[in-house]
Automatic annotation (TrEMBL):
It comes from the Eukaryota. This is Reverse transcriptase Ty1/copia-type domain-containing protein. InterPro entries: RVT_2. Residues 47-103 form the Reverse transcriptase Ty1/copia-type domain. It comes from Vigna mungo. Pfam families: RVT_2.
């Protein structure tokens, strides 16, 4: 271990002690993840990403989930924590949730 550069030792230490949560339940145990989730929700609200409305009859809710990432500087130190709220678009049903798709 001592033959490795200080930067690489720092990188190895950081990735071995800090992990990315795999679920919301894991993430809310840590203030750093709670802060970035709150920031993501605020950004989505400021960007008018959605409008809260009543669910029309015969429609189902498309769920969402959080994705967590730790971003690192080149020297291996943590740059920032990142949380993204993503829709579970794969749960949509053709003809019910959408009619046609275009690319």
């Amino acid at each position: 271990y001592s033959h490795l550069s200080n930067n690489f030792q720092s990188f190895i230490s950081s990735i071995s002690t800090i992990t990315e949560p795999h679920s919301y339940a894991e993430a809310v145990k840590y203030d750093c993840w709670k802060k970035v989730m709150q920031a993501e929700l605020e950004a989505l609200t400021l960007n008018n990403t959605w409008t809260v409305t009543s669910l029309p009859p015969n429609k189902h809710v498309i769920g969402c989930r959080w994705i967590y990432k730790i971003k690192y500087h080149a020297d291996g130190n943590i740059e920032r924590y990142k949380a993204r709220l993503v829709a579970k678009g794969y749960t949509q049903m053709e003809g019910l949730d959408y009619i046609a798709t275009f690319s």
